[in-house]
Amino acid sequence: MENELGNLLRELRGKTPLREVAAKTGLSHTYIRDLELGINRSTKAPIKPSPDTLKRLSEAYNYPYKQLMKLAGYIGDNEPDLSVFSERLAIGIQKMGLDLKDVAGKCNVSVDYIQKLLLSPSQLPGSDTLNKLAELINVTSDYLAGYTDDPKGYGTKSYPTDKPDLKELLENQPLRYDGVDLSPEEQEIITAHVRMAYDLIKKSNKIRAGQRRKNTPSEE
Predict the structure, then answer these.
(1) How far is CA 206 from CA 201, 203, 211, in A?
(2) Read out DSSP for 148-165?
(3) Is residue 145 a contact partner of residue 130, using CB atoms and an 8 Å limit?
(4) Do the Cβ atoms of 131 and 145 come closer than 8 Å?
(5) Which CA distances in Å does 55 have to 25, 64, 179?
(6) How many CB atoms lie within 10 A of CB 75?
(7) Each residue's pLDDT tens digit, 160-178
(8) Residue 58 vs residues 22, 24, 75, 134, 148: alpha-carbon distances, Å
């Protein structure tokens, strides 16, 4: 993957003068040229633009920011797009008519933390908070995290937000059935159903735990 980002930036710029792009982005024309080459010409060291730099370039070239972030190594194939998470959380809260104080209280976090998730999260919340947020806005945690575009659907891979037991289950699922290798499509179907079953079991356990607390005599 030799200088894919630099090659793309050079292709996006086309015949547009470096100084014109510099004026649009607020970056120096020499720095833009270094980015296209993939190397700092002064130090001869590889160069990696910051997310802010990539944001400016995506706006100047009208090119998806997420794709530039992937090529720069900030987002892996299985990692979430935090802008999708924030947008879906905001839409869900508004659609359900929820107050930020109520959301924070039900998730056992501060209002400031919820505001940060809506405006500029540095990472997804932990699995417990993510699950609570998803339940509040009536979607799956996979949808909220951006792993699927189906509000009631499930992703088909092992993700950083998964708990260790689910991650192990997904990563060690059988790749053969009846002596025959499963196709990628069949493996995705199995993974999606494993995630669905895991989610149903988790909800069932939560209901049973609530019933046990209800039926346990309180001490006076």
Answers:
(1) 9, 5, 9
(2) -S-TT---SS--TTS-HH
(3) yes
(4) no
(5) 9, 9, 49
(6) 18
(7) 777 777 777 777 666 667 7
(8) 13, 11, 15, 30, 24
Whole-angstrom Cα distance, residue 86 to residue 84? 6
Judge whether residue 33 has pLDDT over 80.
Answer: yes
Could you state, in order of their start, the residue ranges of all structural domains in the chain? 4-71, 82-212
Domains 4-71 and 82-212 share a fold: yes
Structure tokens of 40? 């700092």
Q: Which two tokens stand for residue 214?
A: 């209800």
Tell me which amino acid residue 98 is. Answer: L
Fold of the domain built from segment(s) 4-71: 434 Repressor (Amino-terminal Domain) (1.10.260)
The residue behind tokens 């107050």 is 99
Positive/negative CA dihedral, 99, 103, 105, 111: negative
Does residue 110 sit in helix, strand or coil? coil
List CB contacts of 55: < 8 A, sequence separation 6 or more. 65
Domain spanning 82-212, CATH architecture: Orthogonal Bundle (1.10)
Give the global pTM.
0.53
